[in-house]
Design a protein that fits this description.
heterodimer, A: 283 residues, alpha/beta, eight-stranded mixed beta sheet, B: 827 residues, seven-stranded mixed beta sheet, six-stranded mixed beta sheet, 28 helices, 43% helix, globular
């Protein structure tokens, strides 16, 4: 079925049954329903199966290097704060290779939507463990099963005071759509960690497994309560889904702090040469 | 109050709104134009807006109505960059003074906007009336048309005069599309006006007739109505920003005419110079002493060159700074010095090898003994007498001036400027001066003749600052960098400039983020750059490759220092050429520039941005610690001569990012600028930017990128050659000054200086000029002779190499000896 945000003439490279199909459809629908202007939207992605998603969405895109979508997206937003900017990729790309950028992008509170496809495996490179793989997960490289502590993106984000921290399961598209829309509406950095299966390389964390090991947060959870959020972030059996934490108060947003209220796109900015002349003449 | 205190009064969250202008702080809270501390969406309260006023459509009269609530204390950094009007007047000639007065008058009374709306309104009225007349001819309408048209034409003349005045004083008669169009259209309108009035006077009845004159009359009335709309449109463009003008690749001529150095180094054997070496521990004020002395010497009319060597530490160790004063412009240091000032014992030891037989050495009696050439000066005791050991440096500055019998007024002026808060320094300097005058029985080095007129016209600065101005001229409006010696100076400079100009500054978490942000910036339309040194650049390899594949421009300022690894972090070498050439996997076009003088720092800083934008390629501009930290003098630079071009196109719905064009350059757009979408991709891609593995498409894209490389190679700038001899002394980058002077010193007509500032890609045309040389010697401040190897790769025969890798750049006296030795091997 065709939608406004469907790019024509593309060759979708995913395996049948891949969770990415659901996420692709979800993002297209959210963009359309929120009436996002495609000309003023940019999705930046790194490398991986997840990172192929924006190739199939009819918006501006920048396909960069493994792990480097966040700094690129940060600068895209900084140069033109009027753009709607999304950084998208997988858990290896965003939490492994790009781990340092994950930390500092949150510190900056850049106004982007950060979509991470979390399938607990490296799909494109055929089955190695990813930072979020569970202990004991056996692969061709981790032959005795993963021994490292899984990366906890929600806790890391919260420890850096991220203003919007959420997790969804692509198996529940209705709930996922509601949360993703909230992320787009949030003013500032918004993390959406999307649990999805990789039917080809991860036979442990399947649609069924995710359903059994997660639950949707209801009104009993106050998403503005930071301490409650921290507790939720360390729950794993089952994992909480929804907006773990959201700070709706106005806080400094990176591009506004640097560029100020007058946020003309930088391609429209050129220097007053007479000012440069005066500064030079002062030497 | 201080700048930081002022920041709090931003008019938000209940705070009052204050702004500062020329050190006075005004309360603008109650002004309707400053609601919530926001002024016209262009400025916010809580800032020093002194530098912004020249941009404003009003003059400083607007401050009269506001209450003064305090004075602004300026930090040294700001005051060095933004002058108070007093100093401006002092330096400007009377012509410039007149012009700036006229400019202020113009901004207060706005004669052109005041007058031009009359002819615009009257012409439009006249046109409207004429259309009514043509529908229903009658005498009343006719009169309406004619009289309004008549006055419109007269007022057109009246309005054009201040318009041309404005073009002169505000834009220096800049030849730009906007002004050319306005001039032509205005002239046509006035001429047509005269013609129509003449026609009417000859025969007023013509307006009712279908004759040639009649039709011409009506046509003119209507056309002039359209003309004034055009004039108004372009008038608006001037006022509300035209910014960079769009350049198309097909008709973009060569970006910059790099002029040959106009005898920048005219130092010759008859010239006289004194080299003064000052040594001491880090943190003891040596760099302050260097600044004080440099400014004082400049005020006294001496040409100056200064350079420093320092250890990788913040306190302790032994650093030296060298100041060379001369009667002609100098751009290189000497190893052997004429005067040596030791501020502590380690310095005395450290500087020993720099002395020749007549060097005068000054040291304090507390750590030195009276020996042959050592003059004991009671620096520490005198400082103590005045109340603090920190006065020792000011004291020795006074001694130096007294010793050389230079008029002390320039020293005192320099001290007053540098130590605004502490008047004791003046007394300390006076005391030192008195002491210096008394020193007898010393063989003094000959004092160079001063040239007050000549030196006054020059600007004293270091390579860091000059590169910074080059980047500003190139339109840099974003810098994302990770601090690393010796490149941090440029990051600091641009951050300081962001207080006066619209530049986004961010310190990244690592060098990978630095260059990734640069690419994100350019993708989105910024002119972005990063700064780094060798080790940081090593981390940028993959992103460099991404720049090449996605054809996203990038500008990287790489200030070199000796490696490998941490190496000598605060010293100098030309050791990263190979890495600049080969870093980043896969072949893709790149440009490597290496300025060697202040003027080249500016020219090539500008060029880096233009080339990056035009060819959508990474540009690496190489400097090194020596060039970055050495101060020399530069003539006036006219920044309006650097054309403000933009290579961004407005996209249409069918836009594709990687259009396969003849010259390999695919028109580049940015998100939100037009109806198209951009797909920039690091995988191999088709013209749309979709991933492809089709081998034919791969071949096409590889060929396209290669064609781009050929195009930009054709723009390679030829080396500058000085001298008619048959032996070429070839250098690149920062060795410019020292090679130039060494050759002059050797006074051998067979020697010619060949200086490369455009280092890669080397083109056939560019290298043609080397064909005439019988012998070629390449001088490089490294151990691997990387540039000589590049020349060899291009079939240039190299006969000898002079290399040095010890943390120092070359010294004139030493290099001259090395060149002479090298020559012996031929003749």
């Amino acid at each position: 079925m065709s939608s406004l945000f469907e790019r024509e003439n593309v060759d979708v490279a995913w395996c049948p049954g891949c969770g990415n199909f659901g996420i692709l459809k979800l993002i297209r629908e959210v963009l359309e329903e929120l009436e996002v202007d495609k000309k003023n939207s940019v999705i930046v992605s790194g490398i991986g199966q997840a990172a192929k998603t924006p190739y199939y969405i009819d918006v501006n895109m920048f396909g960069v290097l493994h792990g480097r979508a966040l700094p690129v997206a940060t600068a895209v937003k900084l140069a033109n704060p009027n753009l709607c900017v999304v950084a998208e990729g997988g858990d290896g790309d965003m939490y492994g290779e790009g781990g340092n950028h994950f930390i500092h992008t949150i510190r900056r509170n850049v106004g982007i939507v950060h979509i991470v496809h979390n399938n607990m495996v490296y799909g494109l490179t055929k089955g190695q463990a990813s930072p979020t793989s569970q202990r004991g997960f056996v692969t061709k490289v981790q032959v005795g099963g993963v021994v490292n502590e899984p990366f906890n993106p929600l806790a890391v984000a919260l420890s850096l005071k991220a203003g919007f921290v959420s997790r969804v399961n692509i198996g529940d598209t209705v709930h996922a759509k509601e949360i993703l829309k909230a992320a787009f509406r949030h003013n500032g950095y918004a993390l959406v960690d999307i649990l999805q299966p990789c039917p080809t390389f991860n036979n442990t964390n399947t649609y069924h497994w995710f359903k059994e090991n997660s639950y949707v947060l209801d009104d009993t959870h106050d998403s503005s309560d930071f301490n409650a959020a921290l507790q939720k972030a360390f729950e794993f059996s089952p994992m909480p889904l929804g907006i773990i934490y959201q700070d709706k108060s106005s806080r400094d947003i990176f591009e506004r702090s640097i560029r100020g209220k007058d946020a003309k796109p930088l391609h429209a900015v050129s220097h007053d040469v007479s000012k440069i002349q005066d500064l030079f003449n002062s030497y | 109050m201080t700048i930081d205190e002022l920041k709090k009064y931003n008019g938000q969250n209940g705070a009052r709104a204050y702004i500062a202008y020329e050190s006075v702080v005004y309360d603008v809270t109650d002004s309707p134009l400053w609601k919530n501390g926001d002024h016209m969406g262009a400025h916010v309260a809580g800032l020093d807006l002194t530098a912004e006023l020249s941009d404003a459509p009003h003059s400083d009269e607007v401050f009269k109505e506001f209450a003064v609530v305090g004075k602004l204390e300026r930090s040294e950094q700001i005051s060095s960059a933004v002058q108070t009007p007093k100093t401006q007047e002092h330096q400007k000639e009377s012509h410039e003074l007149f012009k700036s007065k006229l400019k202020t008058w113009y901004k207060t009374y706005h004669p052109h906007p005041a007058a031009v709306h009359f002819p615009i309104a009257l012409h439009l009225f006249s046109t409207g009336m004429d259309i009514l007349f043509l529908i229903m001819p009658n005498e009343a309408y006719n009169a309406g048309v004619f009289y309004s048209f008549f006055i419109a034409t007269v007022m057109g003349f009246v309005a054009m005069v201040p318009g041309i005045l404005s073009w002169w004083i505000n834009y220096n008669f800049l030849i730009h599309k906007v002004f050319v169009i306005k001039l032509i259209v205005a002239t046509i309108t006035l001429l047509l006006g005269v013609v129509a009035i003449y026609i009417y006077y000859e025969n007023p009845h013509i307006v009712y007739e279908y004759s040639f004159e009649g039709i011409l009359y009506h046509a003119i009335v209507i056309v002039t109505g359209l003309n004034v709309i055009i004039l108004g449109y372009y008038g608006g463009k001037i006022t509300w920003g035209y910014g960079r003008y769009q350049t198309l690749y097909e008709d973009s001529k060569k970006v910059l005419n790099i002029a040959k150095h106009e005898s920048a180094v005219s130092y010759h054997d008859a010239s006289q110079s004194i080299s003064i070496l000052i040594g001491g521990a880090a943190g003891t004020g040596i760099s302050t002493l260097e600044k004080i002395l440099s400014d004082a010497f400049k005020e006294s009319g001496f040409y100056i060159f200064s350079t420093k060597e320092y250890m990788s530490r913040v306190r302790g160790g032994s650093n030296t700074t060298l100041i060379r004063i001369s009667d002609a412009p100098v751009e290189a240091p000497c190893w052997s010095v004429d005067i040596s000032i030791a501020l502590d014992l380690p310095a005395l030891e450290h500087m020993k090898e720099r002395w020749h037989e007549n060097t005068l050495v000054f040291a304090d009696e507390t750590f030195a003994e009276k020996k042959a050439n050592i003059v004991l000066v009671a620096m520490k005791e005198s400082a103590k007498k005045f109340g603090s050991p920190k006065y020792a440096n000011t004291y020795i500055a006074g001694v130096l001036f007294g010793l050389l019998k230079i008029d002390k007024s320039s020293l005192l002026q320099s001290i007053a400027e540098h130590f605004k808060e502490d008047n004791t320094n003046k007394d300390v300097a006076e005391s030192g001066y008195a002491e210096g005058v008394k020193l007898e029985n010393l063989t003094l080095p000959k004092l160079p003749k001063s040239d007050l007129e000549g030196v006054k016209k020059l600007h004293l600065m270091d390579g860091t600052t000059a590169c910074g101005f080059g980047f500003l001229a190139g339109g840099c409006n974003m810098i994302t960098a990770y601090p690393m010696s010796p490149s941090t100076g440029v990051l600091n400079f641009m951050a300081d400039m962001s207080k006066h100009l619209n530049i986004a500054v961010e310190q990244s978490e690592d060098e990978i983020a630095s260059l990734s942000m640069v690419l994100g910036g350019w993708y989105s339309g910024a002119r972005a750059m990063t700064t780094t040194s060798g080790g940081g650049f090593a981390l940028m390899g993959e992103a460099l490759s991404l720049s090449g594949m996605t054809e996203t421009p990038a500008v990287i300022y790489l200030a070199q220092r000796p490696g490998p690894a941490t190496g000598l972090p605060t010293r100098s070498e030309q050791g990263d050429l190979n890495m600049s050439l080969y870093s980043g996997h896969g072949p893709f076009p790149r440009i490597v520039l290496a300025p060697g003088s202040l003027k080249e720092c500016i020219d090539y800083g500008y060029l880096a941005f233009e080339m990056a934008d035009k060819y959508q390629t990474p540009v690496i501009i190489l400097s090194d610690q020596y060039l970055a930290d050495s101060n020399s003098m530069i003539k006036d630079v006219d920044f309006s001569s650097y054309e403000q071009r933009s290579y961004i196109v407005q996209s249409t719905k069918d836009y594709v990012r990687y259009e396969d064009t003849k010259n390999g350059i695919s028109p580049r757009t940015v998100p939100g600028f037009g109806d198209g979408l951009i797909c920039a991709v690091g995988d191999e891609h088709d013209e749309r930017g979709q991933i492809t593995e089709d081998y034919k498409m791969r071949e096409k894209m590889v060929a396209k990128r290669a064609r781009k490389n050929d195009e930009l190679t054709a723009e390679a700038i030829a080396p500058e050659i000085v001298g008619d001899g048959d032996i070429a002394i070839i250098g690149w980058g920062s060795t410019f000054g020292v090679i130039c002077e060494s050759i002059k010193h050797l006074n051998n007509p067979r020697l010619a200086h060949v200086h490369f500032a455009w280092v890669h890609p080397l083109g056939k045309e560019q290298l043609k000029s080397l064909e005439r040389f019988k012998y070629k010697i390449v001088v490089e401040n490294n151990a691997d002779g990387a540039f000589a190897n590049q020349l060899k790769l291009h079939d240039v025969k190299i006969d000898n190499q002079i290399l040095q890798s010890n943390g120092f750049n070359f010294f004139v006296d030493q290099l001259s000896v090395m060149i002479e030795k090298s020559l012996k091997e031929f003749s």
